[in-house]
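Q: Predict the bound structure with zinc ion.
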Amino acid sequence: MPFNEKYTITPAYLTTPSKRRSGQIMSPGVKFIVAHDTGNPRSTARGNRNYYENSRDDMSASAHIFVDDKEIIECIPALTANKQEKAWHVLYGVPTDNQLFGYNANDAAIGVEYCYGDNINADESYRKYIWVIAKICFTYGLDPSKSIVGHCFLDPRRKTDPVTGLLQSRRTYDQLLKDIVIEYNECTGVVASQYTFISLQGSGKVQHRLNVRKGAPTTKADVVQIISPGLSISYIGYVTNGETVNGNAKWYMDAAGNYFWSGAVE
Ligand SMILES: [Zn+2]
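A: Predicted complex:
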């Protein structure tokens, strides 16, 4: 069974041995994934990796992979090498990783960091983020519906990631978990849930800047057109089980087979 290699993962390993990259191998192998965000708006994947490298002996915090809208960069070997090394992305003292998965995250989990901010295209960064997490599940035989946990759930007194980073692109943690499963199914060829189309011609007035998405009722699809508020837009039907945005899963389809979210149209 192949996996759809939509994106490239760029290795840019930190110097080892160093505080951030000890070179230690993940002892039980890869058992789960911790979803992080950088907590530092506007910082890029490349910028974070370079900061790690430049401060590699100043402190030990690290993560395996950084994702922004342009790049997926692996700075501790995880997917792009034959060995999987430990990164220091969750405190050893917290109990929840052991309770949920039977291991400390640093020993058995790949840490993936989401980059966000007004200089980063949130949709594109998010697409790459869910893809690389789905790819880790595929590579290490992990169940995509059970193997991902947010850093904030492991260390709730100190951390809010990735909830805060996702919020900046109006996405929730629950949506992230669902989208990873959908992405996994799409990339492995398992057919994702079918959209139920209802024919109904009509038109609406655009209330907020509207993205028209190519071929699918989801914010993961490419934007083919942007419509300004106040303009009118026509549709030939709708689905009620597209991606849920602000609690609303209804999307209209235009004559070209592209979709726009109903919440932005009156
Ligand atoms: Zn984190």
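A: The chain has two domains: 9-188, 197-264.
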